[in-house]
Write a structure and sequence with these properties.
With 599 residues, this protein is an alpha/beta fold. It is built from 19 helices and 18 strands. The strands form four sheets. An eleven-stranded mixed sheet has the order 3-4-8-10-9-11-12-15-16-17-18, with helices on both faces. A three-stranded mixed sheet has the order 1-2-5, with no helix packed on it. The protein has a two-stranded parallel ribbon with strand order 6-7. The radius of gyration is 23 Å and the shape is globular. The N terminus is likely disordered.
Length: 599
C-alpha cells in the first residue's frame, strides 16, 4: 500500500534458541528476549577444501553444500544456499552454473535490498542488490527420503523480509513435523525487483535509450526469482531427502500474493515463464492475501519518475547500474511514498489477474486458503503515525472511506456510478452483516475493510477455484495477539507465530498453551503437505465446497463449521464480480484524500 506517510511495516515475530528435546517454549519474558536476541551475525559461506562431514552434505547441481546439525532438536539446516544468479541490476535471474565444488551452508545469505526498519530484522542484516538469491532448508535428522516439501515465501509488503528474520527459522517446525522438509526463499523486493523501465516519453520513445529485451522483465523480476527458486528446488531437493513431486508452496501476506501469482502464471496459457509441464508445485497454502495487490503499468511509472527526479544525471539504465549500492540504498530508505507491488505488465503477469484466475487455474492444484479474523486491525499499528497526525484520520474513518470509495462515492478515479448488480450485492452484504450481529455502522465498515483489504479475497478466490475442481479447504484463524498488541485481536500476521512456532516474548509470550496451539496448527499444514488434506485426528475437514465448510482455528478450540459466513461471502463475491474497482486495493492516498472531505 502506498502513500507519502506510510512505510510498510510488517510485525516481526521472532525466534530464539532451544535447550532440550522437550521443547515447550522459547523466551517467556521481554527481558529474557532482549538479553538473548540479536540480528544473526553475518559470515560468508566459503568453499571447503579438504575433509567435511558427509552426513551434512547435499550434492546439488551447483555444488555440494554442507549444513549444520542442531543437536538439541536433531534438525539439520542449510543456510544461504544460492539458487540463482543475477547478471546485473534489473536483469532477469538465471540458473546458477554447475559446479563440483564443496561449500559451507552455515550462514544466512544477504538480504535483498530494502529500507532499514526497527521491527524488520532482515532489513538490519547485510544486504545486496545482486547477491541476494538464496534459500534455507530445514529437515529432521531421521534419514527418511521422499519427504513432502513446504516452500515458504515470506511476506513484508513486497518491500521487506528475508530468510535471516528469525520468524522464518524452520527448526521447530521440522522438530515437531519430522516428515516434512521446510524451504524458505528470498527474492528481489520493490525497487530492485519490480520497477517499470519501459516507460516512454510524449513522442513514443523510451525514456531509457538502452531499454531492451533483457530489461523487459524488470517489472516482475521478484516473481521470476521465485520461479527460479522453484526450479532449483525441483532439481535438487531430493539431495536433502525431499520428494520433488510433492511440493507445496506457501506464503503469508505478500507471500500469499506471490503464491496466487505463481498459481495464475502456472495456469494461464498466455504465460510462458512458468509452464504447467514443469510440475514445480502440486499444492498451495494461501494465508491472508489475494490477487488484488498488483500495480498497474500506469501507476508503476510513479516510482521510476520519482527516481529520475532525484537523479538528474541518470539518462540510461546503465547509469543506474553503475551507481554505488549505497546511493540506491539511501534513496530507498528516504522514499516510502513510491512502492510497487508486482506489476500487471501483460508479460509475466496478466493484465487482468482476476480473469486469468477465474478461467485458467489448474484443476489438479489443491488449495488451502484462509485469513485471520480481524485482518485490518493490523493497520491500527501500521498507520499509527498517520492516525496520530490528524484526528480525522481515525481508524473508523479509514474503514468508512474505503467502503465509500469502492461504492462510487469518491472523486476522480473513484467517481463512478455502480451498476445495479453491485448495488444489489452490496445491500445483500450489509444484510448478511446485520444477520451476523454487526449492527453498528462503524463495525460494519471495519468488517468490510477486513474483507476488502485481505480476508474476503481469500474466500472469493476459494469460491472461484471451487467452480473448477472443488479441491479447496478454507479456514479462519482467530487466535489473538498477545502482549503489547493484545488490542489488535486476531489481526494480520499473527498466524506467523504459530506457523513456525516462534514467539518473541513481546507480542507472544510463548506460553505452553500457545505452543500447543502452534503444534496443532503445524499438524494441519504438515498433513496438507503430505496428502493434500489438512484433516487431523481432531478435525474431519471437509472441502469448502461442501456447505461452505471452514475450519475455525481459535484460542480455545479448533473445529469445523458448516455454512461459514455463506451469505456474506456469496454477496462479497458478487460485489467483486460486478465492480472493477474492487479488484485492486484503493491507494492509501485516495483513502486519506477522501477522509479530508468528511464533514
Amino acid at each position: 500500500m502506498k502513500n507519502k506517510f506510510l512505510s510498510i511495516i510488517v510485525l516481526t515475530l521472532l525466534i530464539g534458541g532451544c535447550s532440550s528435546n522437550s521443547i515447550k517454549s522459547i523466551y517467556h519474558t521481554q527481558a529474557e528476549w532482549n538479553a538473548r536476541y540479536k540480528v544473526p551475525e553475518y559470515h560468508e559461506n566459503e568453499e571447503i577444501i579438504g575433509e567435511y562431514d558427509k552426513s551434512l552434505a547435499a550434492k546439488c547441481k551447483n555444488g555440494t553444500f554442507v549444513g549444520t546439525l542442531n543437536k538439541d532438536l536433531n534438525v539439520k539446516s542449510w543456510k544461504g544456499v544460492p539458487f540463482a544468479k543475477i547478471p546485473n541490476r534489473f536483469e532477469r535471474s538465471v540458473a546458477p552454473g554447475d559446479s563440483d565444488k564443496v561449500y559451507q551452508a552455515f550462514y544466512f545469505g544477504k538480504s535483498a535490498m530494502q529500507a532499514w526498519s526497527e521491527s524488520e530484522k532482515a532489513s538490519q542484516y547485510p544486504q545486496s542488490d545482486i547477491d541476494c538469491l538464496s534459500l534455507c532448508v530445514y529437515t529432521s535428522n531421521n534419514n527418511k527420503t521422499n519427504k513432502p516439501v513446504l516452500v515458504y515465501i515470506h511476506g513484508g509488503g513486497w518491500v521487506n523480509g528475508g530468510s535471516s528474520d528469525p520468524i522464518y527459522e524452520g527448526s521447530l517446525f521440522s522438530y515437531y513435523n519430522p516428515d516434512v522438509i521446510v524451504v524458505d526463499i528470498q527474492y528481489r523486493l520493490n525497487f530492485m525487483g519490480m520497477i517499470n523501465l519501459g516507460i516512454k516519453d510524449e513522442y513514443g520513445e523510451y525514456i531509457f535509450s538502452d531499454y531492451g529485451e533483457k530489461f523487459k522483465n524488470s517489472t516482475n523480476n521478484g516473481l521470476l526469482d521465485q520461479v527460479q527458486a522453484l526450479k532449483w528446488i525441483k532439481k535438487n531437493i531430493s539431495s536433502f531427502g525431499g520428494d520433488s513431486n510433492n511440493i507445496t508452496i506457501c506464503g503469508e501476506s505478500a507471500g500469499c500474493g506471490s503464491v496466487f501469482c505463481l498459481l495464475t502464471m502456472e495456469s494461464d496459457p498466455n504465460c510462458h515463464y512458468l509452464e504447467k509441464e514443469d510440475n514445480l508445485f502440486q499444492k498451495v497454502i494461501a494465508m491472508s492475501g489475494g490477487i488484488n495487490q498488483g500495480t498497474t503499468l500506469k501507476a508503476s511509472e510513479a516510482l521510476t519518475y520519482a527516481f529520475l527526479e532525484d537523479h538528474p544525471n541518470v539518462h540510461t539504465i546503465k547509469d543506474i547500474q553503475d551507481l554505488p549500492f549505497e546511493d540506491l540504498y539511501e534513496w530507498r530508505c528516504k522514499n516510502s511514498l513510491y512502492i510497487n507491488y508486482y506489476i500487471l505488465d501483460g508479460e509475466v503477469i496478466p493484465l487482468d489477474m482476476f480473469n486469468s484466475f477465474n478461467n485458467y487455474v489448474d484443476p489438479d492444484i489443491t488449495l488451502l486458503t484462509g485469513s485471520t479474523s480481524n485482518e485490518f486491525a493490523y493497520y491500527k499499528l501500521v498507520m499509527k503515525p498517520v492516525i496520530d497526525s490528524n484526528p480525522k484520520y481515525s481508524f473508523d474513518n479509514m474503514c468508512r472511506s474505503m467502503f465509500e470509495l469502492v461504492c462510487g462515492m469518491g472523486e476522480g478515479e473513484y467517481d463512478f456510478t455502480p451498476i445495479e448488480e453491485f448495488i444489489e450485492a452490496a445491500n445483500d452484504y450489509i444484510k448478511a452483516l446485520n444477520d451476523s450481529g454487526f449492527t453498528d455502522d462503524n463495525e460494519k465498515m471495519k468488517q468490510f475493510a477486513n474483507d476488502y483489504s485481505l480476508q474476503g479475497f481469500n474466500y472469493y478466490l476459494g469460491l472461484k477455484d471451487i467452480a473448477r475442481n472443488g479441491n479447496v479447504y478454507a479456514y479462519t484463524f482467530d487466535i489473538p495477539y498477545d502482549g503489547s498488541c493484545r488490542d489488535l485481536g486476531a489481526a494480520h500476521a499473527v498466524d506467523c507465530y504459530y506457523t513456525f512456532g516462534n514467539f518473541d516474548g513481546n507480542n507472544g509470550e510463548g506460553t505452553n498453551a500457545q505452543v500447543e496451539m502452534s503444534r496443532k496448527w503445524q499438524e494441519i499444514i504438515s498433513n496438507f503437505c503430505k496428502n493434500g488434506n489438512p484433516s487431523t485426528s481432531d478435525l474431519d475437514w471437509k472441502k469448502y465446497s461442501e456447505n461452505y465448510t471452514c475450519a475455525y482455528i481459535g484460542a480455545d478450540k479448533f473445529e469445523i463449521r458448516a455454512n461459514w459466513n455463506k451469505d456474506r461471502y456469496d454477496a462479497f463475491t458478487r460485489m467483486v464480480d460486478s465492480n472493477e474497482k474492487l479488484k485492486y486495493v484503493a491507494p492509501w492516498t485516495s483513502i486519506l484524500g477522501h477522509i479530508d472531505h468528511f464533514k
